[in-house]
Design a protein that fits this description.
135 residues; 4 strands
Length: 135
């Protein structure tokens, strides 16, 4: 995970082996960030997702939920749609190098689950994200 980010909620496979939530967060990267009002993957996001795809291809028994999130600005409906586009962008990227689509599901939380709370860019930038969770 990027410096300064707290790990997402760990799943039951948080034992620390290479097929664990802890390994995903600490060694692969479980989240990517987005620009305001965008669902385009930048170079940093693509780098994280290449590692995720390699890891998923090495751990065929793991399925993931990809959460899409937005910052607090905008309407609930707009942010739910934006979160869905972000999660879909990640899912599509992971499928392209061979991860089976049936292993990936998406959900949008819009602005309902902020990772950081404050009304300024330093928090908003952390909330514009997609998080991959083992399910």
């Amino acid at each position: 995970a990027a410096p300064g980010y707290k790990a997402g909620s760990a799943s039951s496979s948080a034992s620390g082996g290479s097929a664990s939530a802890k390994y995903l967060v600490e060694n692969v990267g479980d989240r990517v960030l987005f620009e305001t009002d965008r669902s385009i993957l930048d170079a940093s996001a693509r780098g994280t997702l290449v590692r995720q795809a390699e890891w998923l291809n090495q751990n065929g028994g793991i399925n993931m939920t990809i959460e899409g999130h937005a910052d607090e600005r905008g309407t609930r409906e707009y942010n739910l749609a934006l979160g869905a586009r972000r999660a879909s962008a990640v899912r599509d990227f992971l499928i392209s190098p061979g991860v089976n689509a049936s292993r990936l599901q998406t959900i949008s939380f819009g602005k309902e689950r902020p990772g950081s709370l404050c009304a300024e860019e330093s928090c908003w930038s952390k909330n514009r994200r997609s998080v991959s969770i083992i399910r």
